[in-house]
Amino acid sequence: MILRMTTFMFAHVVISLAGIFSGFLVAYGLLTATRRDGWTAFFLATTVATSVTGFLLPADRFLPSHGVGIVSLLVLAAAIYAFYGGRLAGPWRGIYVVTAMTALYLNVFVMVAQLFSRVQLRRLLSADLRWTEITFSRPFFSY
């Protein structure tokens, strides 16, 4: 176990973070009109791997993350075809941009949702409320 996670879950998290990181590099390339074919291939592969390994994690019922995973795989199928099959020609360029960025969004969305489900909100809100009140009120009131 690594950081209280099974080895498989740790691998899933590492793959997911690699997909998110490479997705931001691909998004930057789209914004600057710079083709990043290597990063795009890595992004698409790791994002597909993230969705597939997510289905292999233990769950006793169908979870919202499974629904997002299904949508992500459908969107990724369109992105992969637009990039490799359509060669970004004509309408495939726009389809690729929309589907690739939708896949990135879904990956980040699940990451944020998982973080909120793992971190107890009660712990965040009640950590040290007095310290928070003093810190945020100090600029407005002098002691």
Please, could you describe this protein's structure?
By secondary structure, the protein is mainly alpha-helical. The chain contains 6 helices and no strands. The protein has helices at residues 7-31, 37-56, 64-85, 91-118, 121-125, 129-137. α1 (7-31) runs antiparallel to α2, α1 (7-31) packs across α4 (91-118) and α3 packs antiparallel against α4 (91-118). The protein is elongated, with a radius of gyration of 20 Å. The termini are far apart. The model has no long low-confidence stretch (mean pLDDT 87).
**Tally of individual helices:** 6
- Runs with pLDDT <50, length 5+? none
How many strands appear in the DSSP assignment? 0
Shape: elongated
Structural class: mainly alpha
Helix content: over 70%
- Using the CA coordinates, give the radius of gyration: 20 Å
Mean pLDDT: 87
Summarize the structure.
It contains six helices and no strands. It is mainly alpha-helical and 143 residues long.
Characteristic key phrases:
143 residues; mainly alpha; 0% strand
How is this fold's topology laid out?
Layout: H1 7-31, H2 37-56, H3 64-85, H4 91-118, H5 121-125, H6 129-137
Helix pairs in contact: 1-2, 1-4, 2-3, 2-4, 3-4
